[in-house]
Amino acid sequence: MTATLPQQSDQELIRRAQDGNADAFGELYTRYVDMVFRYVFSKVGDPYDAEDLTEEIFFRVWRALPAYEQRGLPFTAFVMRVARNIVIDHYRRGRQKVEHVSLDDYAWSLSQPDAAVSLAELDVLRSGLKDLKEDYQQVLLLRFLSGLTPAETAQVMERSEGAIRVLQHRALQALRKKIEGIL
Predict the structure, then answer these.
(1) Is residue 26 within 8 Å of 37, Cβ to Cβ?
(2) What is the sign, positive or negative, of the torsion defined by CA atoms of 143, 50, 122, 112?
(3) Could you tell me the residue ranges of all domains in the chain?
(4) Distance CA 177, CA 183 (A)
């Protein structure tokens, strides 16, 4: 029975998980854990903290699942909103000051081993990102590192889709200026 789970839609897995099926939730976890970890790791910079926070995120998703209602956006947006809120809470508790990911750690966290980005290019990108406003960093991380759509990003950041498109455009312009200043 578990072998058929990967072929099921998120909606079906959510329904089954809401009915208490742990295997269905396990499949949802498998589908989204890498994306969530990459996002959290990019924000906290420590792989061990990122693992702990990722675990906390999925625990909260599991607890919130009975009340979850599909509202036309993918489940990804719900999971990433929980992730964003947990990262914010992490910093509010003062457990860690904002760290930037080391180049070596960031390189191993990329999910695509065939990415045509050199370590030097990653360093320039990281340097440019760290100096951007928090909203700019957030929209770029959600859109390009986590791969969310503008609609999903809008839900996570609690803004309209149009506002996300404008924010993304401005963030890319600001990043371009920062990178040109570094080069």
Answers:
(1) no
(2) negative
(3) 7-182
(4) 10
Phi, psi for residue 83 in degrees, rounded to 5: -60, -45
CA angle 159, 163, 166 (to 5 degrees): 150
CB 164 within 8 A of CB 153: yes
- Report the alpha-carbon distance of residue 66 to residue 35 in Å, rounded: 23
Would you mind telling me the total number of residues written for the chain in this entry?
Answer: 183
How far is the C-alpha of 140 from the C-alpha of 112, rounded, in Å?
18
Question: Whole-prediction pTM value?
Answer: 0.67
Fold of 7-182: Rna Polymerase Sigma Factor; Chain: A (1.10.1740)
Those residues with Cβ within 8 angstroms of residue 182's Cβ, 6 or more apart along the chain or in another chain = 124, 127, 128
Q: What's the pLDDT tens digit per position in 1-55?
A: 445 444 788 899 999 999 989 999 999 999 999 999 988 988 888 889 999 999 9
